[in-house]
Design brief:
mainly alpha; Transposase
């Protein structure tokens, strides 16, 4: 699986990002570098602190990502990208919050658990004092 973006893909992503940004507030210094940092972050499955220095301070990248995600920019961004695709409606994603584990995966004790009948419990001596 290729994790690099072509120049055409990056140009489309930059155009869509700029169209999705709010009109008010401080604009980012370098949108391309920011998108490359997000791409690197997601494809390499790292923490924010592990971002290479070439993307700038990790905290600045994270603050911008946090601010834009709270403003709903990424929902608009992905909606715009999906509208450009002729096959986006065919792709569905899911995450672990919708996948249910089997009952035995919860750590409960397995096997048959017999209950003592009331007669047998009354006939036997108490187990503790």
């Amino acid at each position: 699986m290729s994790t690099t973006m072509t120049e055409r893909d990056m140009a489309v992503a930059l155009e869509v990002l700029r169209a999705s940004l709010p009109r008010r507030g401080d604009k980012g210094r370098n949108d391309r570098l920011f998108l490359e940092a997000l791409h690197y972050f997601s494809t390499h499955n790292i923490t924010w602190r592990a971002l290479p220095e070439r993307f700038g301070k990790w905290n600045s990248v994270w603050k911008r990502f946090d601010r834009l995600s709270k403003a709903g920019v990424f929902e608009i961004f992905f909606d715009h990208l999906a509208s450009l695709s002729s096959s986006a409606h065919l792709v569905q994603m899911f995450d672990s919050t919708v996948v249910r584990a089997h009952v035995s995966a919860a750590g409960a004790k397995g096997g048959r658990r017999g209950t003592r009948s009331a007669d047998r419990a009354a006939a036997s001596p108490p187990r503790s004092i």
